[in-house]
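[09:14] KT: can someone run the structure on this one? pasting the chain below
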Amino acid sequence: LSSPAGQEMYMAALGQYWNCWVQQWLEAPTVPGAKTAQEVLMAISQDHPAKGTLTFRNHGPASASNTNVTKMAAEEVVAGPEFVASANKSFEAAAVQQGRANDIVAVTASRRTNFEAVIDLRMLRPYVTSRKVRTKFELLDEKPTEGVQESEFRFRWPEAVRR
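[09:31] RB: done, structure tokens below
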């Protein structure tokens, strides 16, 4: 963690949790049934962004007994030539950092990230959040590969603050 690259990796890893738990939902629609989409910059690394889309869905109250708790969903999608270029720049940068020739060349690349949350939007207090990332690559002279990473988080909050 003493190097800038190590610190960047550490902060990126922590940022993924914060994003899943709270940050992701700051832009979400608060009206039940609403759906919004926007263009965003996403990347394999912070230095090589590519344009993608972020779509939010508000599924409304998570239960009839507590209408303040909402079920939300979001999907980030990035694919195409710009993302392939981002991937190749990241592969090249990693090779240079490791002092080796780059022999990894992406032909196609895509990433789809799905987020879900049961959250109190008034207080941005999550009860359950999940994140599923599907990444597909076809590298030069290799078979296509697909990776999936899934995380689920559950939170228990006191109903009242005790003094």
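[09:33] KT: thanks! Strands lie at 35-43, 49-61, 69-79, 106-120, 125-139, 145-154.
[09:34] RB: yep, looked fine to me
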